[in-house]
């Protein structure tokens, strides 16, 4: 009789354990299905909103600058050789037309020097250098925004985390309720703010230096082309 009573009492417990083992997915889904990535991100506090705005603005600047720099820095591999051939035969108009064939920064720089051939070499070099500076400044336009975002975003994330920590300890001081759940729950929410700020900052930082590398590479190629054209312009003068 005692054994029968024990089995009857253990039966509900056994059924509960069996149901939990048989349906683990149901329990897990009920916990996780209501949490989306956006909801998780927005738990980072008020500083998440300016960080989201900075992220979208950063992406816009990256796309716009990439397309602009790529189009401006396009270079025809045969352009310099074709111009040199035209200059050697004295066909300045054809050389200028070759420079204007594609609306690129290197073409504009070479055209600015070829169009004033006949003036002193120092003046031609000065004009080409000034034109190169203008073209490079056009490429660098907007890169300051990326540099600013790369510095501001991590700071905003850190401010959000500090603000959250202050609120946690303020609540503890008022309620006197100190437990690990209160502290860890508040901290993980506020650390989202720091993580988001670092992600936005890293994206802007990488894009800023990548574009500067592209511009430096273009500058080096243009300097070589300018030197070749100046040498061709000087040849008739040396012959005379």
Task: Report what the structure shows.
The longest helix is centred in the last third of the chain and has 60 residues, at 180-239. α5 packs parallel to α10. The chain is mainly α and 240 residues long. It has 2 domains: 2-32, no CATH class; 38-239, no CATH class. It is rod-shaped and about 90 Å long. The model is unreliable at 6-33 (pLDDT under 50). The N and C termini lie far apart (128 Å). 85% of the residues lie in helices and 0% in strands. It is built from 10 helices and no strands. The relative contact order is 0.14. It has helices spanning 2-22, 24-32, 37-42, 48-72, 79-88, 92-100, 105-114, 121-140, 143-175, 180-239.
Structure summary:
The chain has 240 residues and is mainly alpha-helical. The protein has helices at 2-22, 24-32, 37-42, 48-72, 79-88, 92-100, 105-114, 121-140, 143-175, 180-239. It has 2 domains: 2-32, no CATH class; 38-239, no CATH class.
Q: Main sheet, how many strands, which sense, barrel?
A: none
The span between the termini is 128 Å
Shape: rod-shaped
Question: How big is the Rg?
Answer: 34 Å
